[in-house]
Design a protein that fits this description.
By secondary structure, the protein is α/β, with parallel strands linked by helices. The chain has a single domain, classed as Alpha-Beta Barrel (TIM Barrel). Helices cover 49% and strands 18% of the residues. It has eleven helices and eleven strands. The protein has an eight-stranded parallel β-barrel with strand order 1-2-3-4-5-8-10-11, surrounded by nine helices. Strand 6 and strand 7 form a beta hairpin. The two termini are 25 Å apart. Bound molecules: 1,3-dihydroxyacetonephosphate.
């Protein structure tokens, strides 16, 4: 079916307390791995890409073409989302390329500047029927071209979150509650009490960034308390990468396209499937 907006997928997820997986993709096989895994469980899914993946794929239009092709063949709803965009013009290029959802990440800016830039994006995206995600608070770690160390990290304030959503008119809010981008370098401490306080005053779908390595029971607790979208990048990429290494080191391995690339796509698909099952709370 044609690509759908992220809002269509996330509003019922928040209402019915299940989570939707959002996976970074960079190629045809990574997109197929995600969508095939979701289709086998009859769950909606989000294909997402940031600047890094768009550049790697030779431009934002190429990823849009891939996502449309894969979604058209799928029996489940698929949204195409721009992850962590900091530049207004880059967001316009994603809308122009056919993305059905965009994230404006102005979380590094002071509150008022974050509001102003997010409002500008909403004004451009809403009339075109495009979903807007924005972020308040900061996660530790590296995400594409964005790097945040622990001194800059700040968890989302519930009162600010309420005001931010009212002032901007966004469709989904990314919250900082202790997850990190990339693998954890310390024991994860996920602040469910803070999430509950945010969810009490913000009714739109909430987004958990830094899903990789977050303990399963914590992710499920977060979904039960307002998280509707869970972002997974590092673990998905690692599933492909680790499989390439072990495939080639097997005794008697002979190079062919299916023998090298096939197992990695299957490993990515298995990782996506395990996350989608976890998030659906089945
Ligand atoms: P991880 O790489 O930690 O899974 O985070 C992904 C993410 O939040 C993308 O925005």
């Amino acid at each position: 079916m044609p690509l759908v907006t992220m809002k269509e997928i996330l509003v019922p997820a928040r209402q019915n307390k299940y989570g939707v997986g959002a996976f970074e993709f960079w190629s045809l096989d990574s997109a197929q791995a995600v969508v095939e895994a979701a289709a086998e469980q009859n769950m909606p899914v989000i294909l997402q890409a940031g600047k890094l993946e768009c550049d790697f794929a030779g431009g934002i239009k190429n990823l849009s073409r891939i996502a449309k092709m894969v979604a058209d063949e799928a029996s489940i709803p698929v949204a195409l989302h721009l992850d962590h965009a900091e530049e207004y013009d880059f967001i316009l290029s994603a809308i122009d390329a056919g993305f059905t959802s965009v994230m404006i990440d102005a979380s590094a800016k002071p509150y008022e500047e974050n509001v102003a830039l997010t409002q500008k994006v909403v004004a451009a995206a809403k009339p075109a029927g495009i979903t807007v995600e924005a972020e308040l608070g900061r996660l530790v770690g590296n995400e594409g071209n964005i790097s945040v160390d622990s001194r800059e990290a700040a968890q989302t304030d519930p009162a600010d979150a309420k005001r931010f959503v009212e002032e901007t008119g966004i469709d989904a809010l990314a919250v900082a509650i202790g997850t990190v981008h990339g693998f954890y370098q310390f024991e994860p401490k996920i602040n469910i009490e803070r999430l509950k306080a945010i969810a009490d005053v913000v009714s739109i779908p909430l987004v958990l960034h830094g899903g990789s390595g977050t303990p399963d029971y914590k992710v499920q607790e977060a979904i039960e308390n307002g998280i509707a979208k869970v972002n997974i990048c590092t673990e998905f990429v690692a599933a492909f990468g680790k499989q390439y290494t072990s495939t080639q080191s097997a005794e008697g391995f002979k190079y062919s396209i299916p023998s090298l690339f096939g197992p990695s796509k299957e490993a990515g698909k298995a990782l996506a499937a395990s996350k989608i099952k976890l998030f659906s709370l089945k």
